[in-house]
Amino acid sequence: MLKSINARAAIVSLLILLVSMTVWEALNQPPEASAALSEFEQLMGGADQEARVPPPSQVLSHAWDELSNPFYDAGPNDKGIGIQLAYSLYRVLAGYFAAALVAIPLGFLIGMSPLMYKALNPFIQVLRPISPLAWM
Questions:
Q1: Which tens digits make up the pLDDT trace of 53-64?
Q2: Helices (H), ranges, 69-113
Q3: Which burial class, exposed, middle or buried, applies to 53 when counting CB atoms under 10 A from its CB (0-12, 13-18, 19+)?
Q4: pTM for this structure?
Q5: Which of 47, 72, 76, 86 has an alpha carbon 20 to 30 Å from 102's alpha carbon atom?
Q6: Contact 73, 80 (CB under 8 A)
Q7: Which of these, 58, 81, 59, lies nearest to 71 by C-alpha position?
C-alpha cells in the first residue's frame, strides 16, 4: 500500500509540475504589437518585451545553450559557465585554506596558553552572537 501511495504521489507531483509549467508558458506569451504606443507605455517599458519573466521554453533553451559548451572563452567578459564555476570554486577553496591556515594555529595557541585564552576570549565572545549565515 505504501508503494502505491508513493507512486501516486509522484504522479500527482509530476502533474502539478506539468500544469504549472503550462500555465507559466501560457501567461508569458508576448502581447500583440500595437502600431502606436502611448508616451506612458514607452516610458514604462511597454515597448520592451524582454522586461517580462521569460517562459519555461525560453529558460530551457537558454540553459541548453549555456550547458552545451560550458568551457568556451570568447574574451575577458564572455566565458562559459564551467570556467566561471571553476573560478568560483577556486575562490571558495582559497578562502577556506587561508582561514584554516590562520585559525588552526591560533586555536592551538588559545588551547595551550591560558594567557592567550584570556586575552583573545573577549574578541571571540563579541563575534559569537553573529549568525553563521551572516558570515557568508
A1: 888 988 999 999
A2: 81-112
A3: exposed
A4: 0.59
A5: 86
A6: yes
A7: 81
User: What is the DSSP track for 11-67?
Assistant: HHHHHHHHHHHHHHHHHTPPPPPPS---HHHHHTTTT-GGGSPPPHHHHHHHHHHHH
Cα–Cα nearest to 103, from 133, 131, 134, 124: 124
Q: How far, in Å, CA of 16 to CA of 27, rounded?
A: 16
Which single residue is written with the C-alpha cell 518585451? Answer: 49
pLDDT tens per residue across all 136 residues of the chain: 667 899 999 999 999 999 999 999 988 876 665 656 667 766 766 655 665 788 898 899 999 998 999 998 888 888 999 999 999 999 999 999 999 999 999 999 999 999 999 999 999 999 999 998 898 7
Please tell me the distance from the alpha carbon of residue 104 to that of residue 93, in angstroms, as a whole number: 16
For 46, 61, 80, 86, 89, the CA distances from 73, given in Å and listed in that order, are: 35, 20, 6, 13, 18
Give the position of cell 519573466: 53
Residue 79: strand pairing partners = 73
129: which DSSP letter? T
